[in-house]
Amino acid sequence: MAGPWTFALCGLLAATLVRATLSPAAVLSLSPEVIEGKLTQKLKDHDAVDILWRLPLLSTMREKPAGGNPILGSLVTFLMKYIIWLKVTSANILQLQIQPSADGQELVVKVPLDMAAGFNMPLVKSIVEMHMETEAQAIIRVETSERGGTLVLRNCSNSQGSLRLSLLRRFSFLVNSLADKVMSFLLPTLPTLVKSQLCPVIEAAFEDMREDLLHLVRVPVSLSSDHLQFDLLSPAIKHDVIQLHLQAKLSDSQGKVTKWFNESAVSLTMPTLEGEPFSLTIRQDVVNAAVAALVPPEELMVLLDYVLPELALRLKSSIKVINEKAADQLGPTQIVKIVTQETPELLLDQGRAKVAQLIVLEVFATSEVRRPFFTLGIEASSEAQFYTKGDQLVLNLNEISANRIHLMNSGIGLFDPELLKDITAEMLTSALLPNENGSLPSHPTGNDLSHLQHPSPTPL
Questions:
Q1: Which tens digit of pLDDT belongs to each residue from 208-247?
Q2: Residues of the signal sequence (predicted)?
Q3: Homologous superfamily of the 25-215 domain (CATH)
């Protein structure tokens, strides 16, 4: 799977302008699926299930019998003398749940635990096993400081009302009675163990996840010889989504910053493809800078008769309509010179993204002549699509439309440039377009975002 930039940027063709007050350069929005998938993986990395297997049930019950009740405590102390061992025999962490808080400003993380434990006593010939279900719960919130805001995990504990204990198999009346007593003593023990043993692991997993997210936004996106780099301004939580507000800068191949993007009131929303848990809102000036870096101004000389012979014949036929003598002067070394002026600009038109370019086109009869037959000024546009190739941001231009053509000068007499509109568009599409798309980068730069993919909801 390609990274989230792929899905966000491919949505450019359906982009719409959004007006806001002092919007950041970009906002990366991460759905609950992203947080769930990343946190699940980090819990695996921290061996959270092994922590459950090693829960010290027996020693904790002996240290704090019956939750401090002196009468029950004496009974627990008496029974503990006759329990040979009490251990967790199986443990799983089920699919995590990420839910918005009541005010929509925090996220509630629920970590369901499914375990079994067994104990043995001299009076009981077989191991008595119990099924234990409980849930750890924590809150993700944004805390602000002088340095800005940061995502933190707080209030990790056992979720109230989530603890359920039951015997996996019934025995005699005496054994069942003893087992019920042991389970009643475990009720206050498990929440204590969840908080003291598992919560530190959940907090450490969250910190690792947070660092991964920060690394994600800081990895430079390669744009030909330049790089577009994002830095975190501040995080925010809106309902069930974590938003990372980003600032952006453009730097050259030596790492020197060539452009900073300050706050603006106009942004460009790029929706995700259906089913993908990412969305990217990026300001139009940032996108325009990326387009300018990917498609810089250039000058292109084409020996039309050798490279595009069919177009050479059609061009000759088109010029013959204007000036038959001039058409006869076109030789096998005729040259079409194409010069793109300034940098292209991204435009939005009825939900479609286009790149507008100013182009100067000149036709020379042969490679020896210095003066062109004519010079055309062309206002052209192309449909634009962003995607990733490997780990690199790529812009692809589809077709080139010659929207307006102006006759700048002519050595074959004045004529209506509209007569050359179709052949001009074909020359630009055939000669300029492959050159612009072909010059785009194709080597990965290590900006691997595929690890944000949401894994299957299997137990740890």
A1: 999 998 888 887 878 777 888 888 888 999 888 998 888 8
A2: 1-20
A3: Bactericidal permeability-increasing protein; domain 1 (3.15.10.10)
- Residue 219 CB coordination number (10 Å): 17
Q: Write out the DSSP string of 434-455.
A: HHHHHTS--S--S---GGGSPP
Of 447, 436, 348, give the one whose Cα is nearest residue 388.
447
**127 bridge partner residues:** none
Q: Is 260 exposed, middle or buried (0-12, 13-18, 19+ CB in 10 A)?
A: exposed
| Token pair in block for residue 24 | 């950041």
Distances (CA, A) of 2 to 123, 248, 348, 447, 457: 61, 22, 25, 10, 20
Q: Which of 40, 37, 41, 34 is nearest to 8 (CA)?
A: 34
For 253, which DSSP code? T
All residues at 6 or more sequence positions from 392 whose CB lies less than 8 Å from its CB, including other chains: 221, 222, 441, 442, 443, 444, 445, 447
pLDDT tens digits, 330-343: 989 999 999 998 77
pLDDT tens profile 409-446: 999 989 999 999 999 999 999 988 888 876 443 333 33
299-438 — its CATH code?
3.15.20.10
- pTM comes to 0.70
